[in-house]
């Protein structure tokens, strides 16, 4: 699945632990070499909060921005690397908007510069092909439940020869690199899940890509002013759709969809318990209104064409009904009319 | 998010949705930054609110709060309507989750906005909108009047 050898695989409690180990492990192991870490503004909180913690300890963190599709520029990585840089951590693909990063190019650059490269591949493993050797990846995080394995189990890939301090100290488990009695049931489950996924990665990738593009196309056709967030085509995870439906608030969308048995998520602040919308949606330059009206739909192995048609049908009705009671939508339409008149 | 049955009912079947073209007062509260905007229209006859309509962009509790607020205010005198508080709206909804209490505050603000807009159009001094409790401290709701 990764083109790694068994002795480069270390079982962890999940993607979050692996991310913590990668950032803090590299920071502590190489503290005499330098104190600079490069990451991006759109990482998972497991990486971002680890980086903030390290910043509190005196480490210097660079958070690279992304373009409007959510892609990091390899050139920006190159410019950010200094003599003090010990780690570059860029996620393989984004969990919210599905954008796939230029991992092989960043890996090659880091290898040339002698800087360790970590990628949080939680969203990508088992969905798109990954080759740690060809992509010059030194450290990689993955999580079993993203490919139908058990929750609470993950992996840290550590390239042979990479020195990395232990994160959990104690007994000699995991070749002495991660103490604590192994979660045997979880590890067996992860093994079966990854074997199962490996057998159909390419057929699932093309099936889901077709469903995904059908879903995006139908949403664009049926819902006025729908906006796709993230990249289109090959630059996007096969199972991810994220759209902004201006004039409707995300939590309202989720609750209306739930009435029809449709599960979705949103980057709106209203559903998060905080007052800020998604950091990823803000990083790609969305307005607050667009971020509050964002909707993420994830496709999976049980998703069918009928499901896609059902979701589009229900969603279009919900959006129309909620927009009709939205003062924001009213203002948006008025502004559109004005700009059309001005254009004439 | 766990909502009461009354909140769910008002979210799914909101009362008094729409706008009044020849409204006697219009009030708006909230801002797109925090994700809630409410607009309330009132029609007044003999000092009584004889019709009320609302439009809301926001989450379920924002929609339910506006809907409930319009029901509480309908038929009341201007002064009675002014004195309906956000807690009364939340109570009528059988409670709101703590982080959603600001939605009921927005409803009160929007109604106050509509009433003061009406008063202004009548050549009367607007009433002072007393500050709310600590529940709104994180929000910087602007409060603007139309007309």
TrEMBL record, chain B:
One of its GO terms (biological process) is iron-sulfur cluster assembly. InterPro entries: NIF_FeS_clus_asmbl_NifU-like, NIF_FeS_clus_asmbl_NifU_N. GO terms for molecular function: iron ion binding; iron-sulfur cluster binding. Gene3D superfamilies: 3.90.1010.10. It comes from the Bacteria. Residues 3-122 form the NIF system FeS cluster assembly NifU N-terminal domain. This is FeS cluster assembly scaffold protein NifU. The lineage of its organism: Bacteria, Thermotogati, Synergistota, Synergistia, Synergistales.
């Amino acid at each position: 699945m990764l083109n790694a050898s068994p002795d480069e695989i270390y079982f962890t409690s999940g993607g979050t632990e692996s991310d913590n180990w990668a950032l803090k492990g590299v920071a502590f192991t190489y503290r005499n070499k330098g104190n600079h870490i490069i990451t991006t503004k759109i990482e998972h909180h497991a990486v971002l909060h680890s980086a903030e913690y390290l910043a509190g300890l005196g480490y210097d963190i660079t958070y690279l921005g992304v373009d409007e599709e959510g892609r990091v520029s390899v050139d920006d990585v190159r410019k950010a690397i200094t003599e003090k840089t010990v780690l570059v951590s860029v996620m393989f693909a984004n969990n919210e908007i599905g954008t796939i990063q230029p991992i092989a190019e960043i890996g090659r650059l880091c290898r040339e510069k002698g800087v360790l490269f970590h990628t949080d591949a939680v969203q990508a493993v088992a969905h798109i092909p990954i080759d740690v050797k060809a992509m010059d990846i030194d450290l990689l995080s993955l999580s079993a439940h993203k490919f139908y394995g058990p929750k609470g189990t993950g992996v840290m890939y550590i390239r042979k020869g990479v020195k990395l301090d232990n994160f959990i100290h104690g007994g000699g488990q995991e070749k002495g690199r991660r103490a604590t009695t192994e979660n045997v049931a979880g590890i067996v489950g992860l093994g079966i899940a990854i074997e199962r996924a490996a057998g159909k990665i390419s057929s699932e990738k093309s099936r889901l890509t077709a469903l995904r593009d059908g879903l995006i196309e139908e949403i664009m056709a049926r819902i006025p002013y729908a906006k796709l967030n993230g990249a289109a085509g090959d630059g996007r995870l096969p199972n991810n759709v994220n759209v902004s439906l201006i004039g409707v608030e995300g939590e309202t969308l989720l609750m209306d969809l739930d009435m029809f048995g449709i599960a979705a998520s949103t980057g709106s602040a209203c559903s998060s318990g905080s007052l800020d919308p998604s950091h990823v949606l803000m990083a790609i330059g969305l307005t607050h209104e667009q971020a509050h009206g964002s909707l993420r739909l994830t496709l999976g192995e049980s998703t069918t064409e009928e499901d896609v048609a059902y979701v589009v049908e229900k969603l279009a009705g919900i959006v129309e009904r909620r927009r009709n009671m939205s003062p924001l939508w009213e203002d948006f339409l008025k502004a559109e009319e004005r700009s059309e008149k001005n254009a004439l | 998010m766990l909502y009461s049955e009354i909140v769910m009912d008002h979210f799914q079947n909101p009362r008094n949705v729409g706008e009044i073209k020849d409204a006697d007062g219009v009030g708006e509260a909230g801002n797109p930054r925090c994700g809630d905007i409410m607009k309330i229209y009132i029609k007044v006859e003999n000092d009584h609110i004889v019709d009320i309509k609302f439009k809301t962009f926001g989450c379920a509790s924002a929609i339910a709060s506006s809907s409930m607020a319009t029901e509480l205010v309908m038929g009341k005198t201007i002064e009675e309507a002014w004195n309906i508080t956000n807690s009364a709206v939340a109570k009528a909804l059988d409670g709101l989750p703590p982080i959603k209490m600001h939605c009921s505050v927005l409803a009160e603000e929007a109604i106050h906005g509509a009433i003061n807009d009406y008063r202004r159009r009548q050549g009367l001094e607007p009433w002072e909108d007393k500050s709310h409790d600590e529940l709104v401290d994180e929000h910087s709701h602007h409060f603007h009047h139309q007309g």
